[in-house]
Amino acid sequence: MEQLSRDFLARADQALAEPERAANREALGVLMPELRRAAIGALGGRKAFEKLREELRVVREHSLANLAHYLDEFMEQARKNGSEVHFAASAQELNERVIELCRRAEARRVAKGKSMITEETGLNAALEAEGFAVCETDLGEYIIQKAGETPSHIVGPALHKPESEIRDLFLAEHDLGERELAGAPEMVAEAREVLREQFLAADVGIIGSNALIAEQGLSMLVTNEGNGDLCANLPRTLIICTSIDRVLPRAVDAMTMLRLLVRSTTGQAVSCYTSFYGGPRRDGDLDGPLEVHFVLLDNGRSDILDSDYREMLQCVRCGACLNHCPVYMSAGGHAYGWVYPGPMGSVLTPLLTSLEEAAPLPDACTACGRCEEVCPGAIPLPDLLRDLRSEKFAAGITPQRWRFGMRVHAWLCERPRLYQLFASLAVGLLHRFGRRRGVISRWPMAGGWLTARELPVPAAGRTFMAMQRSARASRGSREANQ
Amino acid sequence: MDEAELPPNTPDPGMRVALFVTCLANSFRPSVAEASLRLLEQAGCEVDIPELQSCCGQPGYNSGDRSGAASTARAVIRVFEPYPYVVLPSGSCAGMLRIHYPKLFDGVWRERAERLAGRVYELTQFLDEVLGWRPRSTTRPEVFAYHDSCAGLRELGIHTQPRQLLAQAGHTVRDIEGSEVCCGFGGTFCARMPAISARMSDDKLGAVERSDAQTLLAGDLGCLLSLAGRARRRELPLRFRHVAEVLAGDLETPAIGEAAD
Lengths: 482, 261
Description:
The complex is a heterodimer. Chain A is an alpha/beta fold. Chain A has 22 helices and twelve strands. Chain A has helices at residues 8-16, 19-43, 45-65, 67-80, 91-104, 116-121, 123-129, 139-147, 163-173, 184-201, 227-233, 251-265, 301-305, 320-323, 326-331, 342-352, 370-374, 381-394, 400-413, 416-434, 447-450, 464-481; strands spanning 84-88, 109-112, 133-136, 204-207, 211-213, 218-223, 237-243, 247-248, 273-277, 291-297, 439-440, 455-456. In chain A, the strands form three sheets. Chain A has a six-stranded parallel β-sheet, sandwiched between helices. In chain A, helix 3 (45-65) crosses helix 12. Chain A starts with 7 loop residues before the first helix and ends with a helix. The longest helix of chain B has 17 residues, at 194-210. The termini of chain B are far apart. Classes of the chains: A alpha/beta, B alpha/beta. At the A-B interface, helix 1, helix 2, helix 15, helix 17 and helix 18 of A face helix 1, helix 2, helix 3, helix 4 and helix 8 of B.
């Protein structure tokens, strides 16, 4: 997928200027945390959540520390089940492998379940360029595919679109006759009709995976629409595209993850469908694919594993950090310019693409810590973002004037007397210029602050430390005079 | 006897406390430092204000200047480590010393940072939890909205302490919608990404407007200056004060961003 993260600010401005979408985001920013809070409350509250996420953290850490071992085990078990396992080092390799598999299956039509990995590799465009007809079957993905847009959220790709936009889209794209699609239920029913034909006509189904279970060679998929299961079971060939870091040792570990994943994602205790795919149809099975392939993507994840950002691989892709991030809710998912938005995206994007391309993202954070608080993977997202900022600073990607300003500031902080002298001078000036109004609207080098707000001026003409010094001096002279 | 009439607790006399004024209070709002000093003294502390103080280093730390933050931290540690307690009228600065300083170092400096970290407190937390102090009843009870700064709330667990102290003084505190959501300040964030920051501030200001309070209190001047600046730009009739000022009974100093009469 094209990398547009450099334009974060311009794209955020655009998003802020779209009133209906902004209102939609704001409503989500209230609703999603409420749903999660209720679900975590039902689980036993914060303590129970902390305990469970610590269990999950231990499991994930162990899996990642022994990744090669568990991938080997997964591969062996999956092959025993009759599946084929392929590895793809890069996005291009994944696309090429999937194209090859589709050719082998003599496919013309491909039905897809939601998969962020294939968004990352830009699989749809690659398949279409080779002449395959690709249809997304997750409702959100279907909507943005029809609209020619990209996902704005890792769980709800079309969450940015208000109902009215979706109605207009269906009115334009579907053959509706006299029907007007009064509300959301009618739109869902319409999509279901259209998608049913796609499932039945598809030669290949492509889906993602929430976890690979090494012990049994299984893939776990969590959905609410059941479209993933239709993609998996109706076409002749099933291709499961996921990344190497999804592997867990045992089914019980996947259960630990499941208990947190769904609650963190939608606030449900459990999703409508949780499926385990064990391989192609066996003798006596009534249905199921004839061939099952796993394509496991690396695309930079081994490098993350060996870096100081390893904890990022504990991400379960629940989207809770997006739902709780006020920057994401203000700027919207598209501002982030690539596949993964919000706090997890601001860490992943520089790591999976490059820090230069993703330069603004680590700054798109107030370090409020709400993401870390709700993260079921216990990822210290604000710390990781701060580390990325340090890398930017060291590599000279941070603008020169910021670096200079920070260096001067640090230099002064180490010299408190000089610092206080400068503070006194600045305070005197600001106070003199602004005391009549209490605020100032213009000041050299304060442009960033003054863009959206006034600067309250120092309430007194002197700093507190200067007042203290005077008080001490006059006490001293009084004592001397006595 | 009515609870409000109980005499304020006086802890063991002579508890030695260093006041880290913080750079924003020092420059923009000396009344916050004065109020903090007064409150600590009322609570029976022997307060020292070390002369060699500047800033805690958050701007550099959060902007990626790790070595600058580390050198600032070393300067702060040197000055404040002799004291049994270090108190700051700011959740984010207290969090910087308590949570983040140790992350900046290895070895001996890490030990020194950790030793200091255990003795650092935000003002209301110190008054309430460590001293068990209760404020005197106010003669001018008011209704306030309260803003929890993120660092105070999530790094230090400050939520009930300021509310309790204000209630004990006889004030009424209103919680606002979305009280756990950031106000958009975020240090240099508000200057780097002003449009997004303004949007976040507007959400916060909207929540304050929907409460029946006209004055917003908080324990962090960064949030207060940025919200007051935004409110003034939009000409909203809201007032902003630091919780320390109100607890110390200072309602004479013009509110943040207001002109002196």
